[in-house]
Amino acid sequence: MTNPQSPIPNPGHSVAVYLARHESKSLLRFITCGSVDDGKSTLIGRLLHDSKLLLDDQVSALESDSRRYGTQNGEIDYALLVDGLAAEREQGITIDVAYRFFDTARRKFIVADCPGHEQYTRNMATGASTADLAVVLVDARKGLLTQTRRHSYIVSLLGIRHVILAVNKMDLIDYDQVAFERIAADYRELAAKLGIDHVHCLPLSALKGDNVTAPGERMPWYRGQTLLGHLETIDTAGEREERPFRLPVQWVNRPNQNFRGFSGSVASGAIRVGDEVIVLPSGKRTKLAGVLNPQGSADFASEGEAVTLTLADEVDASRGDVIASATHPPEIADQFAAHVLWLQDAPLLPGRSYWLKIGARTVGAQVTEIKHRIDVNSQAELAAKRVALNEVAYCNLMLDQPIAFEPYAGCRALGGFILIDRQSHATVGCGTIDFALRRANNIHWHALEIDRKARAASKGQQPACLWFTGLSGSGKSTIANLLDRRLHGMGYHTYVLDGDNVRHGLNKDLGFTDEDRVENIRRVAEVAKLMVDAGLIVLVSFISPFRNERRMARELFAAGEFLEVFVDTPLALAEQRDPKGLYQRAREGKIPNFTGISSPYEPPEHAEIHLPTAELKPEQSVERVIARLIGEP
Amino acid sequence: MPNQSHLDRLEADSIHILREVAAEFRNPVMLYSIGKDSSVLLHLLLKAFAPGRPPIPLLHVDTTWKFREMIAFRDRRAAETGCALHVHINPDGVAQGIGPISHGATVHTDVMKTQALKQALDQGGYDAAIGGARRDEERSRAKERVFSFRSAQHRWDPKNQRPELWNLYNARIHKGESVRVFPLSNWTELDIWLYIYRENIEVPSLYFASERLVVERDGALIMVDDERLPLRDGEQPMRKKVRFRTLGCYPLTGAIESDADTLEAIIQEMLVSRTSERQGRVIDHDPAASMERKKQEGYF
Question: How many CB pairs under 8 A join A and B?
Answer without folding.
Answer: 203
